[in-house]
Amino acid sequence: MQIRVLGCSGSIAAGSRTTSFLVDAQLLVDAGTGVGDLTLDELSQVDDILITHSHLDHVLAIGLLADSVTRRRIAARRPPIRVHALAATIAALRLHVFNGVIWPDFTRLPDAEHPVLQFHAVEIGQVLQIGRRQIEVLPASHTVPAVGYAVMGGQGAWVFTGDTGPNPALWQRLATLPVAALVIETAFRDDESALATVSRHLCPAQLQRELAKLAAPAEVYITHIKPGEIDAVMSEIAAQGSRHRISALATGQVLSIAD
Ligand SMILES: [Zn+2]
Ligand SMILES: [Zn+2]
């Protein structure tokens, strides 16, 4: 499988886009501003979107994508795009985004019988079958209900933690799940550790404690660093030393995981 990093930044600036990954061609994981880099043809091929949580930097492109591809999908008689998320996340999206005020309700457009979007509730621990891929819903610990995802490959999974603070349940699960590559957030520097704690994100010191719980050495990619903070955060991480190979994720990077 190929994972194309569309966005891996904690916020926006020129060259910095918020969280989104394209797995192969049909599956999006989160729908941050990085989705805007896809061509109309690429957008039209997306059949499934996995959402980690309701925060704007992860969901804002769902409705924009739906708007872009409506005409094409209807003309091609394509089924609705399935948006998979926790029930609480779906409720938040319906109430606060697809409410006819912030954005139209694309689960009833262009008509209720043939909508462009369809919500599907997931639960932690559930294994989804999407196309030929198996995807497990992982626990996350954030300020709103949140999950991560593991997309299974033949020799290990691509694991994305989503936004999360310290997360013992994740490491318990990963103890028996081979990890080919781990994308984990580090949203703050160590001098902002108090902010990291209240906003349920990680700083380098917390990241170190988390990664110590991952038994086998792994390929680790850091995401969700704020624009302008990448060098500072990555030097704090490098100064710790680690059994794992740790690097900063970059927009446009493609991760290849054996099927
Ligand atoms: Zn968040
Ligand atoms: Zn975020």
Descriptive overview:
The chain is an alpha/beta fold. The protein has one domain (2-256): 4-Layer Sandwich (Metallo-beta-lactamase, Chain A), CATH 3.60.15. The protein is built from seven helices and 14 strands. The strands form two sheets. The protein has a seven-stranded mixed beta sheet. Strands 7-8-9-10-11-12-13 form a seven-stranded mixed beta sheet, with helices on one face. Strand 7 (127-130) and strand 8 form a beta hairpin. Helix 6 (204-211) crosses helix 7. The protein is globular and about 55 Å long. The termini are close together. 42% of the residues are buried. One zinc ion (ZN) is lined by residues 53, 55, 142, 163.
Overview in brief:
With 259 residues, this protein is α/β, with parallel strands linked by helices.
> Low-confidence spans: pLDDT under 50, at least 5 residues?
none
CATH homologous superfamily placement: Ribonuclease Z/Hydroxyacylglutathione hydrolase-like
Spatial gap, N to C terminus: 6 Å
According to DSSP, the number of beta strands is 14
Compute the number of structural domains. Answer: 1
Architecture, according to CATH? 4-Layer Sandwich
pLDDT averaged residue by residue: 97
Decide which structural class fits the backbone. alpha/beta
Helical content band: 25-40%
- How much strand? 25-35%
If you consult CATH, what is the topology?
Answer: Metallo-beta-lactamase, Chain A
Q: Which class in CATH terms?
A: Alpha Beta
Order of helices and strands: EEEHEHEHEEEEEHEHHEHEE
Query: Judging from the principal axes of the Cα atoms, what is the shape?
Result: globular
Number of helices: 7
Which small-molecule ligands are present, each listed once? zinc ion
Largest sheet: 7 strands, mixed
Biggest sheet: strands side by side, in what order?
A: 6-5-4-3-2-1-14
